[in-house]
Amino acid sequence: MVVTLKLPPVEVARSGLVLIGVGAGCYLLWRAQEVVFLLMLAILLATAIEPLVTRLRRGPFTRGSGVLVVYTLIVLTIGMPTYAVVPSLFAQAASFSETLPERLQQLRPYALSLQPRPLQAAAISAVDSAISAVQSPQRPAQDQIVEAGATAAHTLFSLITVFVLAYYWLVERPSIKRVVLRAVSVRHARDVHTVWREVEEKLGGWVRGQLILMLAIGVMATVGYVVLGLPNPILLGVVAAIFEIVPIIGPYLAFAPAVLVALAAVDVSRALMVAGYALVIQEIETNVLVPRVIGRTVGISPLTVMLGILFGGVLAGLPGAFVAVPLAGALQVVLAHLLRSEDPSQAEEHRDPADRAAHQNPAAGAQSGVKFQRIHG
Question: Is residue 372 scored above 70 in pLDDT?
Answer without folding.
Answer: no
